[in-house]
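request received
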Amino acid sequence: MIERTALNMKKNILGKPLKLAFAGAVIVAILLFPIFSSRITLHFAMVGLTGAILALGLNIFFGYCGQINFGSAGFFAIGGYGVALLDKYIQMPYFASLFLSIVISGIIAFIMSLPLLRLREYMLALGTLAFGMAIYEAVSKGFTSYTGGEDGINISKLKFFGTPAGDTFFFYLFLIAILLCYWVSYALRNSRTGRAMVSISQDETAATSLGVNINNYLIQAFMLSGMILALAGGLFVKWTGWCSPEYFSLKNSILILLAVVVGGVGSAFGAIIGGLIMFILQEILVPLAIYEMLAYGIILCIFLLFMPKGIKSGIISIANWFKGANRR
Amino acid sequence: MNKTLLQVESVSKNFGGISALLNINITIEQGSITSLIGPNGAGKTTLFNIITNFIPLDSGSIFFREERIDVLPPYKVANKGIQRTFQLLQVFKELSVLENVTLGMHANSKTGLFPTILRFPSMRIEEAEIIEQSMNAIQLVGLEAHINDMAGQLPFGQQKLVELARALVSRPKLLLLDEPTNGLNPHETEKVINLLNKIHEQGINIFLIAHDMRTVMEISEKIYVLNFGKKIAEGTPEEIVKNQEVVRAYLGKEYSIA
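response:
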């Protein structure tokens, strides 16, 4: 469940020139991706990148602190609707509205954490589920005169000196956001604060005995998590140019949770991979229609049963199993 | 310089109708190793849990360095400089040995979320300090070959050492050890006793629960004896061995000759 951290990693993983060359090739491929890809593959990639940011956000609360959150789409929605409403009613510049939405999401996360973090496990799952559903109902049915109800809100295009920013611009913007969130996760995981959060996931009694103020750290993690989820929302709706409640349904909360599980709970890099896989898969699985949720259920079962530590250690253990089988 | 470090004043605790602790008075002096002994169910661990405020007391009060601590939440008690180990091991099984021990430095450090994310220079200095202290503690208990191993994968005796290193790395003013030699083989027990003496020489006060009488007699300067929630004796090891009530309740005939 624990990723390789700087502390654990006295062994050098990137020493060999071959690996360096491979990493360089991957980076160049990612950077050149929007130039060579078709519109539709770029669309898939962008949805995947959004998923990566979302999974990074949830990973701080679910992965590091070990607390369940079934309402991540609620914070995703706060980011999305924050940007959309600020754009529609006061024409606020995009990046200012993005920043403000993130701050608002942090404040809402703080307020919600006061009742929610008295709960644990199943009860916390139900509490956060209710929060996510409440936000969804509020934006889709509640304040329809402001939010446009099921129709959503049309958002103005982002413009630089009169020229609208296209998919390519947003691709790089999403990449920067991912790097930023990954950096935050990594720095956190290798710090006193992050270790305290992880200690809570393992043993609350022992953590308390060492002087860890559990409630305080859970609130901080919940807020940071909510702010990253809102960042994803603000980026996503501006890219699509449309803020629709369907983006923020329960299905997406589950997808984000699945992304973290697929990537390996507690691993920031895994969260990126898991987010990419699950959200691109979601786009591909659209033709399944009503059987889509069934597919997610099956994926979740497979991972919990056979790869509880995520796809990377799953692949490694499968490889080891084959090696062992060959030797015999 | 016999100053009082910890003072437990007429503490009582009932679980339902059962009186787990009754009117307990205990004083721990600065610079001492004190032991708490007694038969199973005497209330020893309960007393530890009450000192660290994991369990609230029913009546009485506890003073640590002349400050009342029974009103503080448990994490604040730890931050005052009281660290503890547990009777049933509570290491963080899926963290490395080094990370386990660095967590012990939590009470001694203070960098919060914002300086961490923005990587203030103060944060890096503190982090380096945390790691250096942790390495020292790991060396002290002799686990330097295992710093990157998952704590849960180590054998029981070494996990006990991880827990001990985690408790002592922050140089607490008072170290509460709940059966530090429980379940260890004679060789490991010897090692832990030496370790406790070494820690004590470094100026850390120790209050321990033990069942292994050899350990207790060897290192304690003062012993408290509990039985059915009552304090039945206190004194130096020599006095305790001669105390008829203690012999009857706990030690058995073997010690009555000595």
